[in-house]
Automatic annotation (TrEMBL):
Pfam families assigned to the protein according to its UniProt record, in alphabetical order: Flavoprotein
NCBIfam families noted in UniProt: PRK06029.1, ubiX_pad
Protein name: Flavin prenyltransferase UbiX
Annotated family: Belongs to the UbiX/PAD1 family.
Lineage of the organism: Bacteria, Bacillati, Bacillota, Clostridia, Eubacteriales
Amino acid sequence: MTSIAIRIEKEMFKITKDSKKLIVGITGASGIIYGTRILEILKELNIETHLIVSKAAEITLALETEMQLKDLYRLASITYSVDDIGAAVSSGSFQNMGMIIAPCSIKTLSQIAYSINDNLITRAADVTLKERRRLVLMVRETPYNLSHIRSIEAVMENGAIVFPPVPAFYTKPKTVMDIVDQSIGRALDLLGIDTGKVKRWA
């Protein structure tokens, strides 16, 4: 990856100045299916995605899926190197709907809680908070220890939304993807995005 954002499949995803833009971070916690599925759904909805993948997430991708990194990148509109601290999404002047990190590791959450901006994911998240935009963290960790709880408290005080992908069984899911889509749909609800895949309580 170069320091310049790479645009992928322009013919399939038309980017204009009026496109809705969402920053998507994928970190190394288990559950990379949440990040990949979010990219698939947002592509269907023609929402421009700005993807940042951590080094640990590259390992998780290989462990949990049959995908290669290039396959993951093809799901996004624009991708950035996690080391590219000067990328467009690192600036508050970059207009967007907000940011979702899925899955979000405790390490990443803790760094965001205390503004430790040593990579593009945490920098983009910090900017999202300072610009008062929505930041949704799909935290994958259990059980929590006390330091986790304190970091969660701190990041919520800073304005982030902590959204562990807890399954909803009132929807009577029949497949793993049913569970994943419901969790993703509810998380994206918080960013004002209706995926059309949420079974709502009536």
